[in-house]
Amino acid sequence: xxxSQVRYFLNLAETLNFTDAARLSxxxxxxxxxxxxRLEDELGGPLIYRDGKDTRLTALGRDIxxxxxxxxxxxxxxxxxxxxxxxxxxxxxxxxxxxxIAPGAxxxxxxxxxxxxxxxxxxxxxxxxxxxxxxxxAGKYDLCILTARPRTNVKLTALPLYExxxxxxxxxxxxxxxxxxxxxxxxxxQPYLDRQHCxxxxxxxxxxxDRNIVMRPRVQSEREDWIQQLVAQGIGVCSLPERSRxxxxxxxxxxxxxxxxxxxxxxxxxxSGNPREVRQIIEMARKFxxxx
Length: 292
Description:
Blueprint: H1 3-15, H2 18-25, H3 29-43, E1 48-51, E2 54-57, H4 59-87, E3 91-98, H5 107-116, E4 120-127, H6 134-137, E5 143-146, E6 156-171, H7 184-188, E7 192-195, H8 201-210, E8 217-221, H9 224-232, E9 238-241, E10 250-253, E11 261-269, H10 276-287
Parallel strand pairs: 3-4, 3-5, 7-8
Antiparallel strand pairs: 1-2, 5-11, 6-9, 6-10, 6-11
Helix pairs in contact: 1-2, 1-4, 2-3
């Protein structure tokens, strides 16, 4: 079996017309007919049912069409890879990242990806608060990293990576930094710095209102790094997912009775229509040890 036969047959299966298929294949109609006949002899059964002007695929023909489509897709990928390598091209992938996810947990993973895929160039984009997995479906991002698993959608691959608790961030020299656990009353006594993009913001407000604890923010900001730096300076405390620290001069402590967590998920479009490198990255993420 030759690869040219695969292309010829796929053109015929698509058009169901020998004249049109021969033109698409760039060969004469007799040559196309002979190619299909050789394929039928090799596979041991008819692929095309011919009855006058009526031409359609047999059951074997339909099965072979599906397999040949996979072969053609693989060959396209190989040709693209070879062409990119020869011409020194890079595959540029756009990755949307929820603004509250810090880079620390992901740096080892992306380092691994770049080592394994030397022809890949990554572009990281902070996602706006109202952006969701819909941005991947729309083609804005090749991949996105979200703080909650999206609703089940056959068009999407959603891979949960790790779960992280919501903790209290304090300066290393804060009087409460030596405690293994902070009480809610102690938290309520501290000047509070409000991370405005925090996914738990509404839940936190409601939680403390139900307990008659008023958390009046001294500072509010959408900038995660600004809030953390002010915490490190002893201005106040803030709630923070346990893997989201970007300022080393702060410590994280659990708050007694406050049990909130989020699931960080990698999302991409499903299926072979996705760039091959995206599928490879998803498989790497599936095998990566996120426990550390």
